[in-house]
């Protein structure tokens, strides 16, 4: 028989009790708790945001309904577009109405090119509020038929469409009408302003928003609209916030630059030639009042045709072989672009007939008139140094060179300056 072994029970050593929790386990537990609570907090925040949005939409729907009731209760002839605000529970709501004349069962607006006389008034009401956070504006639509005899049928109408530089509708833009009668209207969400029931005749349709220009840089563009009985006359404006271009005229260290060089910009939409020239002084210029064309604006110094690196003569022949304009400067609505204007460099030596250098001689440069510069260009530039030399920077093209108050052997010298040429030099000999 085996002997049973007995002994004293073993004692646990300090720190070996598995019923406790280590530091690592505590950190893991806290991390899991933080992750869970973050998700709970995000869910609660989203729920609260949704609740607030639903409350705002409920208030906005009531305000839209009230606005519709106001429209129906108003005298028909007194109805106009408007935008008002109303404070509800500390929140400012914006209520706007837009009225558009359309034909019965019309699916398009009056500015969509369909020459149909107006028959009913389409009413659109919208309600907006701050910090919508992506929620849609509350809207309400209806149609109102004018009372019989409210308008003279022996009249015509004008539909004006206003687009921004992206060819998108420009809403809430003021349009002015003068002529047989004077009216003003704001464009609706489709960029349309409709002037209904006008006496037949000739009218001026114009825009006049501060800081806005059309594609020609005109702040108050005007079009003539002839109204015929029973017809809709259409007009369209491209109109957006003006931009500017800051240009720096660059030579090289030590070169003399005329202080009053004209600058020319190029864009195919500029009428009639696709270019426009601006006078000014200094080597830093800012051209303002530009339509923010998506194509941007090319630029160069000088006003004559051959100053343009891509210019052509009356026969369509290029003045400069492989000439390329500077990259176009993009101008966004209400903003500014910048660029550096390149010039042709010319080194000039002035000497007497015996070959001695002439110091203090002022260079006169002249360009003959052409189709773009009807009076030509002429500049007096700097003075020669003690060695009879001077470096000047002028626009590209063909120039005549002389000395102020002195005669040059053989008459004024001619030089051709190309965008691709370098090391241009000439010697002038005084007679």
TrEMBL record:
Q: Which PROSITE patterns match?
A: PROKAR_NTER_METHYL
Q: Tell me the GO molecular function terms.
A: carbohydrate binding
> Which segments cross the bilayer?
21-50
Q: Which Pfam families match?
A: N_methyl
Task: List UniProt keywords, sorted A-Z.
Answer: Membrane, Transmembrane, Transmembrane helix
Report the NCBIfam families cross-referenced here: IV_pilin_GFxxxE
Q: Can you say what this protein is called? A: Unannotated protein
């Amino acid at each position: 028989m085996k002997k049973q072994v007995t002994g004293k029970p073993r004692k646990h050593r300090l720190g070996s009790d598995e019923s406790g929790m280590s530091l690592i386990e505590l950190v893991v537990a806290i991390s899991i708790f933080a992750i869970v609570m973050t998700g709970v907090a995000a869910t609660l925040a989203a729920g609260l945001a949704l609740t607030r949005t639903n409350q705002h939409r409920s208030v906005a729907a009531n305000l839209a309904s009230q606005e519709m009731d106001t429209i129906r209760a108003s005298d028909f002839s007194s109805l106009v577009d408007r935008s008002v605000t109303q404070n509800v529970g500390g929140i400012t709501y914006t209520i706007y109405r837009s009225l558009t004349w359309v034909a019965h069962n019309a699916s398009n607006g009056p500015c969509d090119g369909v020459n149909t006389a107006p028959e009913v008034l389409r009413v659109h009401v919208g309600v907006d509020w701050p910090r919508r956070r992506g929620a849609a504006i509350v809207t309400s639509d209806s149609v109102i038929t004018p009372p019989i005899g409210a308008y003279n049928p022996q009249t015509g109408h004008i539909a004006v469409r206003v687009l921004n530089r992206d060819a998108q509708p420009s809403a809430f833009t003021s349009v002015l009408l003068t002529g047989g009668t004077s009216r003003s209207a704001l464009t609706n969400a489709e960029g349309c302003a409709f002037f209904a029931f006008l006496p037949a005749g000739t009218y001026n349709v114009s825009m006049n928003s501060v800081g806005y220009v059309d594609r020609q840089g005109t702040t108050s563009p005007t079009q003539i609209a002839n109204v015929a009985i029973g017809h809709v006359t259409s007009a369209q404006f491209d109109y957006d916030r003006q931009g500017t271009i800051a240009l720096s005229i660059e030579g090289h260290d030590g070169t003399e630059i005329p202080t009053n060089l004209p600058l020319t910009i190029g864009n195919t939409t500029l009428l009639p030639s696709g270019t426009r020239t601006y006078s000014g002084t200094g080597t830093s210029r800012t051209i303002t009042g530009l339509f923010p064309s998506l194509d941007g604006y090319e630029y160069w110094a000088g006003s004559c045709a051959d100053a343009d690196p891509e210019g052509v003569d009356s026969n369509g022949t290029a003045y400069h072989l492989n000439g390329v304009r500077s990259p176009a400067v993009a101008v966004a609505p209400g903003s500014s672009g910048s660029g550096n204007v390149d010039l042709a460099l010319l080194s000039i030596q002035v000497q007497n007939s015996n070959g001695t250098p002439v110091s203090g001689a002022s260079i006169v440069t002249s360009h003959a008139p052409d189709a773009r510069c009807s009076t030509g260009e002429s500049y007096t530039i700097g003075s020669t140094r003690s060695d009879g030399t001077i470096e000047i920077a002028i626009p590209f093209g063909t120039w005549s060179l002389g000395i102020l108050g002195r005669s040059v052997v053989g008459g004024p010298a001619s030089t051709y300056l190309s965008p691709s040429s370098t090391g241009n030099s000439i010697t002038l000999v005084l007679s």
